[in-house]
Amino acid sequence: MLVKISTWNVKHSQQLIEDDRSADLLERMGCVKDTIALINADILLLFEGLKEEAKIIDFCDKVLDNTWSLCF
């Protein structure tokens, strides 16, 4: 069985979960989600991302529509 593992540094990911988002940030959210879908990894490691569990969960909800499970 092959497992595809990928890493990605999502620069300024904190901005993507703020409540007051500009049109540019909304577009970036879509690009992040689309890129992660294109990567199509079984396991995706995000580096230099959010540091609090609640913010990571918020990122998965707001940016990834809860399509990924978290592991700590």
Please explain how this structure is put together.
- There is one protein chain.
- It is globular, with a radius of gyration of 12 Å.
- The protein is 38% helix and 14% strand.
- It has 72 residues and is α+β, with helices and mostly antiparallel strands.
- Strand 1, helix 1 (23-39) and strand 2 (43-47) form a beta-alpha-beta unit.
Give the strand content: 5-15%
Shape: globular
Helix-strand sequence: EHEH
| Largest sheet data | 2 strands, parallel
Q: What strand order characterises the main sheet?
A: 1-2
**Relative helix content:** 25-40%
What is the CA-CA span between the terminal residues?
Answer: 24 Å
Global Rg: 12 Å
Task: Report the average pLDDT across residues.
Answer: 87
Which spans have pLDDT < 50 for at least 5 consecutive residues? none
Helix/strand structural class: alpha+beta
Discrete helix count:
2
**Overall strand count:** 2
Protein name: Endonuclease/Exonuclease/phosphatase family protein
Draw up the topology in text.
Blueprint: E1 5-9, H1 23-39, E2 43-47, H2 53-62
Parallel strand pairs: 1-2
Quick structural summary:
This is Endonuclease/Exonuclease/phosphatase family protein. The protein contains 2 helices and 2 strands; from the N terminus they run βαβα. It is of the alpha+beta class and 72 residues long.
